[in-house]
């Protein structure tokens, strides 16, 4: 089964962790993830500047490691990201901002990537809110 | 054949970028000629109220995006009749009212759903 | 066509579960997760005749007891439900 997974909440929201555990279970079950797409506040789940207290789960880091380890296609919506101050090196340079909080394995791209993923998947699963 | 996607928009237009970003999903799908439907439900039906004044709260007008739906080939635009009734609204011409069983059937005939 | 509705907000502070129940089809099911698990405390839920699942970790975290009209699933079970049903409608 091919899954497209869309995440609409920040790393500190329970639904971001739920999406991660769903994605892990999908791969463990022998399924394929055609793409992870991060939209709305979900762009914060891709931040590399989150500092979690030592005794708390660092979901953003776990997302990063999961995507890297399985060489998944992790796409962050560029319009939603810019609006929320999530910038890769290219965008930080373009808009002359001092901080970069998005880097590999994440890639900034447009909403077309969400539709493309949905078209190529057997199931589209969204996670967001609480 | 392309998979069809129904977007259910439940947010009032003034609760941050959520309503606009839901519409953006719809318009992006339309730009790719995908079969996209849009249903306004719960507070989402407030997006259809005419003559709202975005400038009063320094926001961008969402109505331009709504008017663009037709240009992007989005013809399936519906409003939840129950949500409108409990909010004292009548259905505007821009969205066809659907009762609850109608919404059940609508979701049924789409391949995928995003509810925001 | 059947739909798995996923609700993660408490029905006692939020209208998502109510809205979901209004338009839930006879072939559909509801998966409660997060604070949506508190929906198990809402007696109206099981009178609707719709199949109800709850994410096991959220049941355990909240010390909720599982009523006989609901079924618990773990994450592999969640994945399987998303396959069993034709589509997933998450009430974000």
UniProtKB/TrEMBL annotation, chain A:
It is found in: Cytoplasm. Gene3D superfamilies: DsrEFH-like. PANTHER family: PROTEIN YCHN, SULFURTRANSFERASE TUSD. Belongs to the DsrE/TusD family. This is Sulfurtransferase TusD. NCBIfam families: PRK00207.1, sulf_tusD_dsrE. It comes from the Bacteria.
TrEMBL record, chain B:
The keyword Transferase applies. It comes from the Bacteria. SUPFAM superfamilies: DsrEFH-like. One of its GO terms (molecular function) is transferase activity. Gene3D superfamilies: DsrEFH-like (3.40.1260.10). Keywords: Transferase. Transmembrane segments: none annotated. The keyword Transferase applies. Belongs to the DsrF/TusC family. PANTHER family: PROTEIN TUSC. This is Sulfurtransferase TusC.
TrEMBL record, chain C:
Gene3D superfamilies: DsrEFH-like. GO terms for biological process: tRNA wobble position uridine thiolation. One of its GO terms (cellular component) is sulfurtransferase complex. Pfam families: DsrH (PF04077). InterPro entries: DsrEFH-like, Sulphur_relay_TusB/DsrH. This is Sulfur relay protein DsrH. The lineage of its organism: Bacteria, Pseudomonadati, Pseudomonadota, Gammaproteobacteria, Pseudomonadales.
């Amino acid at each position: 089964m091919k899954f497209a997974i869309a995440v609409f909440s920040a790393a500190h929201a329970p639904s971001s962790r739920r999406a991660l555990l769903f994605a892990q279970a999908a791969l463990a079950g022998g399924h394929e993830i055609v793409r992870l797409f991060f939209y709305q506040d979900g762009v914060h789940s891709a931040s590399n500047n989150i500092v979690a207290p030592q005794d708390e789960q660092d979901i953003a880091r776990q997302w990063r490691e999961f995507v890297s380890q399985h060489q998944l296609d992790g796409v962050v919506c560029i319009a939603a990201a810019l609006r929320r101050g999530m910038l890769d090196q290219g965008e930080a340079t373009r808009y002359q901002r001092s901080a970069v909080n998005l880097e590999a394995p994440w890639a900034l791209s447009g909403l077309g990537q969400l539709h493309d993923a949905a078209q190529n998947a057997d199931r589209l699963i969204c996670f967001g809110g609480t | 054949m392309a998979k069809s996607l129904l977007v259910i928009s439940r947010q009032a237009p003034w609760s941050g970028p959520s309503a606009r970003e839901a519409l953006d999903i719809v318009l992006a799908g339309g730009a790719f000629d995908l079969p996209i439907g849009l249903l306004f439900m719960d507070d989402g039906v407030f997006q259809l109220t005419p003559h709202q004044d975005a400038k009063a709260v320094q926001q961008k007008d969402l109505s331009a995006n709504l008017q663009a739906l037709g240009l992007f080939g989005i013809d399936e635009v519906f409003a939840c009749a129950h949500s409108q009734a409990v909010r004292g609204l009548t259905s505007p011409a821009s969205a066809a009212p659907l009762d609850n069983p109608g919404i059940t059937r609508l979701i049924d005939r789409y391949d995928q759903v995003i509810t925001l | 066509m059947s739909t798995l509705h996923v609700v993660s907000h408490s029905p006692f502070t939020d209208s998502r579960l109510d809205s979901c129940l209004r338009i839930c089809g006879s072939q559909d099911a509801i998966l409660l997760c997060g604070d949506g698990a508190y929906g198990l405390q809402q007696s109206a839920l099981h009178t609707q005749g719709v199949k109800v699942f709850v994410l096991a970790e959220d049941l355990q975290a909240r010390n909720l007891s599982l009523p006989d009209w609901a079924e618990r699933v773990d994450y592999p079970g969640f994945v399987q439900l998303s396959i069993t049903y034709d589509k997933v409608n998450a009430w974000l």
